[in-house]
Specification:
471 residues; alpha/beta; 7-stranded mixed sheet; globular; 52% helix
């Protein structure tokens, strides 16, 4: 059991009196037994839950237009969210920790690096070469690449590379292996020995000093995971990749600020590092979800672990280069994000994470999922009644936050680039304008995915993004 579990966290109620008050209506020991015995017990009935949620959200939107004091409710919600947004914007991010020194390496933890690969012949060789030459003692880390029944030359290439690198171990999965990417990671996990489990995508471009920079973040006992900032390797390619570059900068800012305010840090799959004790405590990777990283994020926080964020150095990856690939990828992300809330809503409602994290979670559920979903009925009703949308104050606040977060994130990430000095305000403005234009795709994808989930659940299978290799 982790150091910060119920049994050892006797002062939790004193530290979080509001959370204690919210928790008075249930027995924590009984809830803990339920939590430990069946972490994935709420995974059923997603379509029914999604339908109920959609009816509640759309019904509430219609009600706001029909009742005379609906505008006052919106004003109240806007005021509450504005306080949370102000905290996000004004809080200073955590200071960066010093990298491991040469003297500290003798006592540094062991690391197992996992890469799930399927038809990755274009990129896997470069990644293996990089990961087998990290600035970290060879005896303290191992690399496991899971070949998930590739039909190209990935399998043969990995077998050849295994003869050249002693750290590399290859696990071949048969065609009928279950669980998708999560199943591949779980199968390899049982064979690893590292205290820290690192996960990279096959197209990752990993800095040589990544382990020295990440591992000091685990010095705090409640830290269960660390997510390295992601960047787009092929950002100059076209409009879509430049938009993803700005989107990653926005995400970097939001991640840092949420953690600094006592909120939720999130895993992003590629470049994630998890303490073995934390991963085993919450049951490994969920094989019944389409976004293993988002699901694990919530389970770690529900298990009272913290997730830290490493802004520098970044782990680069290929951005998708066309609208159709972006559409499929983001549909999966949105549905996976929804799934975790539908699966664990009872545990969230019981305030397992504490008041600060629960408040942060509800704020960003409203911002990321609810507001884009209600925008459709709100706009239609406003058009029929010849008035402004009821939720315009909330959406305006969201838009302002996005602009500030993206521009600040771009300034922060550019400032650390060794090959250039601080960019001009004009360059940041141009990138922000391009990024915000690109971000409008979320206003289409979120409501469509929400409606589809209420009718037809997505098939649980590993739908990988095609990688071509970038310089």
């Amino acid at each position: 059991m982790p150091e910060n579990s119920w049994s050892e966290n006797e002062s939790y109620d004193e530290l979080d009196p509001i959370g204690s008050w919210l928790s008075d209506w249930y027995d924590p020991k009984e809830e803990e037994e339920e939590f430990r015995s069946d972490f994935f017990g709420g995974l059923g009935g997603r379509r029914r839950k999604a339908a109920v949620l959609l009816m509640m959200v759309w019904g509430s939107t219609i009600a706001l237009h029909l009742i005379s004091w609906g505008s006052w409710i919106v004003a109240g919600l806007t005021g509450l969210l504005a306080v949370q947004v102000a905290r996000i914007v004004l809080t200073r991010p955590q200071t960066e920790s010093e990298p491991l020194s040469d003297d500290a390496l003798a006592h540094a933890p062991s690391v197992s690096i996992l890469v799930a690969a399927q038809n990755e012949e274009a990129v896997i060789g470069k990644l293996v070469d990089t990961l087998c030459n990290l600035d970290y003692p060879n005896e303290k880390y191992e690399l496991w690449v899971i070949d998930d029944h590739s039909t190209d030359q990935t399998s043969a290439l990995l077998d050849k590379l295994a003869k050249d690198y002693e750290q590399l171990k290859v696990l071949h999965r048969p065609k009928n292996a279950s669980g998708g990417k999560s199943g591949a990671l779980n199968q390899a996990l049982s064979l690893t020995r590292g205290e820290i489990i690192a996960v990279f995508d096959a197209d990752a471009q990993v800095p040589n000093n990544i382990l020295r920079r990440v591992l000091p973040r685990f010095d705090a006992k409640p830290t269960g995971a660390v997510q390295a900032r992601k960047a787009i390797a092929n950002a100059p390619f076209n409009f879509w990749t430049r938009g993803q570059m700005a989107e990653m900068a926005l995400d970097s800012f939001i991640q840092q600020q949420r953690i600094a305010t006592g909120g939720i840090g999130e895993l992003r799959g590629n470049g994630q590092f998890v303490r073995r004790a934390a991963l085993e405590s919450c049951g490994g990777w969920n094989e019944q979800t389409i976004t293993d990283d988002l699901d694990l994020t919530l389970r770690l926080h529900l298990d009272r672990w913290d997730i830290e964020f490493l802004p520098f150095p970044a782990v680069e990856e290929e951005g998708v280069t066309c609208a159709s690939s972006l559409w499929h990828q983001r549909n999966r992300w949105v549905e996976g994000g929804y799934q975790r809330y539908l699966d664990y809503w009872r545990l969230i409602a019981r305030n397992r994470m504490g008041f600060s994290k629960t408040l942060d979670l509800f704020s960003f559920v409203l911002i990321q999922y609810i507001l884009p979903t209600v925008a459709v009925p709100d706009f239609l009703i406003a058009t029929v009644r010849h008035r402004l949308p009821m939720l315009m104050p909330l959406t305006s606040l969201l838009f302002a936050l996005s602009i500030w977060a993206m521009s600040t994130g771009l300034r922060r990430t550019h400032r650390k680039r060794e090959e250039s000095s601080l960019p001009s305000i004009i360059l940041v403005c141009i990138h922000t304008l391009q990024g915000m234009t690109y971000m409008f795709h979320w206003l289409v994808i979120v409501p469509i995915t929400t409606a589809r989930m209420a009718v037809r659940a997505k098939q649980l299978k590993w739908v990988k993004t095609s990688h071509q290799g970038s310089s």
